[in-house]
Design goal:
mainly beta, 55 strands, membrane, cell outer membrane, Plug_dom_sf, TonB-dependent receptor, tonb box
Length: 960
């Protein structure tokens, strides 16, 4: 139906195109041009100053509230990825993962609210959500970037926080006939020496070429960028407070209604880890432009990224044992235990695991596009664009557990259950820890491998899009042109989970016995630096251990549902793994949008006014596969679902559920030219961000009570989720200095968010009306009577009504001090400050007691400053980025949204240009080795403390 609508709309637009072209023959030939383009003054500067001025000029002459990032040449941006580059812009901050920026936040909103395009085309992600991972995009292959903080009708919808537009090269726009750039840098991480087997050195290499041929009618651009770098960290991870126990014998009336008054909240445990590994990213870019005649241009471009990560995590995982453990000398923060002596009991599971995890992540991003631009007449322009964006992620989490035996040399080894753990959290500092088994952690006569598990997670995301745009120049005292067009996109997302487990992580299994370690399989690892007081442990060579445990001819890893009710399992497994199928599925999304926009070019008195006003209509048809648990009832449609090795589950009904909706998104952008160098912008718009695409797929169950007939159900996700909506307003005062050597910008913004996704219980839910296959009657198994069913409670993710405002101010100042006498005329400063606040809050109980926390991604204060200096061929700069505390997902633990402490990241760079073509560069990222630190609602309840080390780059650039 969507494709039929699109075809009809395109035919109507082509008819309009012909009518406009015919009408033009009687129209005057004079077209009013925007005054700003006529006033553009180009000042010739070089290096970092030139990039700043170029970015300011682009910001100055855009028709929306935006930030611009520009490079002198393709391959000239020095940052590791576009995430690092974008965080230098006002109002933008990053969440560091593995020591480098991956997700960006705009104006206090997390990556899920950021829409991203490449060459104007929607990009999908390897993250399993809509938030793209910007570290997939090498800065060497991006020629410019823009962050649109206010939308216009012609922009693709999707960004409540903003839209990030990345651009690759347009070779016919290059100033030179041929341009060739080579970058080569070596890399060193100064913390790698603390991690056993970690890689210390890496490299970055890139090549790019742009050329013009056939009298500048054919342009070619090619680029390749390779990054090989160590992935290193040393960390402490506190785990969530997911249980309770009376640890002090004192009643406490502040507990929630579901917790007995005498109980305190206790943590699952904590981990002490060394992380190491290697990251390899290969990026490829190609573009070809052809202008066979003056009024027609055809361009095709390709961008590919392959990001492979092989990493390990080694150390100690402490399981405190829950309510079955004995707690003495408990230390409380509120009603949460932050320190105690914990001992294992006969029925408990308190233990210390020696962990040796082996992770692999293979990510692919592909983007293809063809664009045709036809200047039909002097006034009418037609643009057609066809694109494909595709992402694949194949993540394999491999875990190797080892436990302490009383005697690993015994013929039938027994787990050492004499376990005592002492710990005391110290807030954002590292904790005090002590173990009665500490000496055994590094002794092969005590430690045995007890379990191995593999947990693959694969997802694919693909969007095909077709776009048709028209622009017609007007002879009007108010409007310079009208733009209108349509876009159709078809997106499919799928994920697939599987699992293999052998052994037991809590004890030694008799049927799957533990592995005795030998000296050639292990190394004794000591902690260093701030972590040096932690006990040594055995680092196990996973491959050697597995080869000994699973010799040739032994059973190979398999995926299994397990042995549960309704499962036909010829393999005889005893664990239910049905979650692997319940968490697998597909999402389908078709979007048809159309827009109309008038570009404003007029005067109020003698003051020029530019801008645009328009509206965008968006029709969305979304659906997702689910498995409804109907307990094997064939009358309700239960089907046999078979996994890859023939195990059959009979409990579920496969189904596809979804919804359709239509949105109207008006927008207004005005730019008042107060003076030649000063302008005032105002923008207002309704904006939307669709829910994370993985939140649309999920399991759903609906079951009627056999006695009462009441139907209750639940789902982790929800295929009926609607977008986030917001009404937003922007105002910006911009003053550009004479001689184009800087600018002062003061901006304010206000967003009124309608709703956020939350998990709630819906009473009286209409199951049948919402597509669930539920019976009208159910038979009471005792009386045999037919009981009429009634609607009960459905617990699911929904768009709740608890929205609220986000508001803030932004200050940005850039100054090239060219008026100073030599040699100080090469000094300059670029800085910005953002203050953001919001009334939006959520609640968390990860730290035990339920407390409120802020909007994910929001730092009240974000500060970014760069001091730079150039003298002849020498250039240096120091960049400082500060963000106050914020809320985001816990490092290394998915779906735990916690508080992160404030952080200050310092980067340094210096370079020298020996000739016009050849230069050297030294770069140090994270100069002060700033850690990432998080906590559970209260700073004294430690989350993660993670140190990444400094990354030092040394290399050269050659351009010709």
């Amino acid at each position: 139906m969507g494709k039929f609508k699109l075809s009809a709309l395109m035919l109507a637009m082509f008819a309009t195109c012909n009518a406009l072209a015919a009408a033009e023959s009687d129209a005057p030939n004079t077209v009013k041009k925007p005054q700003l383009e006529e006033d553009l003054e180009v000042i010739e500067v070089r290096g970092f100053s030139r990039s700043l001025i170029q970015s300011l000029n682009q910001k100055r002459f855009t028709d929306t509230v935006s930030e611009q990032l520009s490079a002198d040449d393709l391959g000239a941006l020095p940052d590791v990825s576009m995430a690092d580059a974008l965080t230098r812009l006002p109002g933008i901050s990053a969440v560091r993962t593995g020591g480098q920026a991956a997700e960006i936040n705009i104006r206090g909103m997390s990556g899920g609210f950021v829409f991203s395009t490449l060459n104007g085309r929607e990009q999908v992600s390897t993250s399993g959500s809509r938030s793209i991972e910007f570290d997939q995009y090498p800065s060497e292959l991006i020629s410019s970037a823009a962050v649109y903080k206010s939308p216009k009708a012609s922009l693709i919808e999707g960004g409540v926080a903003g839209t990030v537009e990345l651009q690759t090269a347009s070779p016919l726009n290059n100033d030179q006939q041929h341009k060739f750039v080579v970058n080569a840098r070596g890399m060193y991480n100064d913390r790698a020496s603390e991690v056993n087997d970690a890689t210390e050195f890496g490299d970055r290499i890139s090549f790019s070429y742009q050329g013009k041929y056939l009298d500048d009618t054919l342009g070619v651009a090619l680029g390749y960028a390779r990054l090989f770098q160590p992935s290193v960290a040393t960390q402490f991870i506190g785990q969530a407070y997911n249980d309770h126990k009376d640890v002090d014998g004192v009643a406490n009336d502040t507990n929630g209604p579901e917790v007995k008054p005498e109980n305190e909240y206790i943590s699952e445990g904590f981990e002490l880890q060394h992380l190491g590994g290697e990251e390899t990213r290969n990026g490829y870019m190609a573009a070809i432009e052809w202008v066979p005649v003056d009024n027609f241009k055809l361009k095709g471009d390709v961008f590919l990224s392959r990001f492979d990560t092989e990493s390990f995590a080694r150390g100690l995982r402490v399981k405190l044992g829950g309510p079955t453990a004995t707690y003495t000398n408990a230390q409380l923060e509120g009603n949460s235990v932050v320190g105690a002596s914990v001992n294992r009991t006969s029925k408990g599971y308190t233990r210390v695991e020696i962990l040796n995890d082996d992770n692999q992540d293979f990510d692919e991003v592909d983007s293809y596009g063809v664009n045709a631009d036809w200047q039909v007449t002097e006034r009418l322009n037609v643009n057609v664009d066809v694109s494909l964006s595709r992402a694949k992620s194949n993540f394999r989490n491999g875990l190797l557990w080892a436990l302490v035996a009383e005697d690993a040399t015994a013929q039938e080894p027994v787990l050492d259950k004499n376990v005592s753990i002492n710990y005391q959290l110290n807030g954002l500092n590292l904790p005090d820890v002590g173990f009665n088994q500490a000496a055994a952690f590094s002794d092969i006569d005590r430690v045995m491998v007890s379990k191995y598990g593999i947990y693959p997670y694969q997802n694919e995301d693909e969007v095909k899009a077709y776009r048709l745009d028209f622009k017609y120049e007007l002879d009007n005292s108010w409007f310079s042109s009208v733009e209108f067009g349509a876009r159709y996109s078809d997106r499919e997302y799928s994920n697939n989970r599987s699992v293999f487990e052998y052994g037991n992580d809590g004890d030694f299994s008799a049927t799957e016995p533990p592995l005795r370690l030998t000296n050639d399989m292990v190394n004794v690892v000591d902690w260093e630096g701030k972590f040096s007081y932690f006990p040594s442990y055995l680092a196990i060579d996973v491959d050697k251990a597995l080869n000994a445990w699973f010799p040739e001819g032994a059973p190979t890893p398999v995926t299994t549902w397990g042995n549960a009710d309704g499962v036909v399992d010829p393999q005889g497994y005893t664990t239910n793994y049905s979650w692997t199928m319940l968490q697998s599925g597909s999402v389908y999304e078709e979007v048809l949008s159309a827009y109309a926009m008038l570009n404003i070019n007029t005067e109020i008195g003698t003051m020029p006014v530019l801008g645009n006003i328009g509206i965008r209509r968006v029709d969305t048809d979304q659906s997702a596969t689910i498995l409804e648990n109907v307990n094997g009832d064939l009358a309700l449609g239960a089907q046999n679902i078979t996994d890859s090795i023939g195990i059959i589950n009979q409990n579920y009904l496969p189904n596809v559920l979804g919804t359709t909706y239509t949105d109207y998104l008006p927008s207004l952008n005005l730019n008042f030219q107060l003076t030649d160098n000063t302008q005032l912008r105002f923008a207002a718009a309704k904006v939307m961000s669709r829910p994370p695409i993985n939140r649309l797929a999920g399991d759903a169950s609906a079951q009627a009570d056999e006695t009462t007939g009441k139907i209750n159900g639940s789902s982790t996700n929800n295929p009926f989720l609607k977008p986030f909506y917001a009404d937003q307003y922007d105002i910006s005062y911009e003053h550009y200095f004479d001689e184009s050597d800087g600018a002062l910008v003061i901006a304010g913004f206000y967003k009124n968010i309608d709703s956020f996704i939350d998990t709630i219980a819906i009473e009286g839910f209409d199951f049948k009306g919402n597509g669930f296959n539920v019976p009208d009657y159910i038979e009471n198994p005792v009386s045999g009577e037919q009981v009429a069913t009634t609607n009960g409670t459905y617990t699911t993710a929904v768009n709740n009504a608890n929205g609220g405002y986000i508001r803030g101010i932004e200050l940005a100042y850039t100054q090239v001090l060219s008026f100073l006498p030599a040699p100080f005329d090469g000094l300059g400063f670029n800085g910005s400050y953002s203050y953001t606040e919001s009334e939006v809050e959520s609640i968390t109980s990860l730290g035990g007691e339920t407390v409120t926390q802020g909007l994910p991604g929001l730092s009240k204060n974000v500060l970014n400053g760069t001091i730079f200096y150039s003298l002849d061929n020498f250039e240096t700069r120091l960049n400082v980025r500060y963000r106050s505390d914020f809320v985001s997902e816990q490092v290394a633990i998915n779906e735990q949204v916690v508080n992160f402490d404030a952080e200050t990241v310092v980067d340094f760079q210096t370079s020298y240009q020996f000739t016009d073509s050849f230069g050297m560069l030294l770069q140090v990222n994270n100069l002060t080795d700033e850690p990432t630190q998080s906590y559970f609602g209260n700073e004294n309840i430690t989350g993660t403390t993670q140190y990444f080390g400094r990354q030092v780059y040394l290399g050269f650039t050659y351009s010709h």
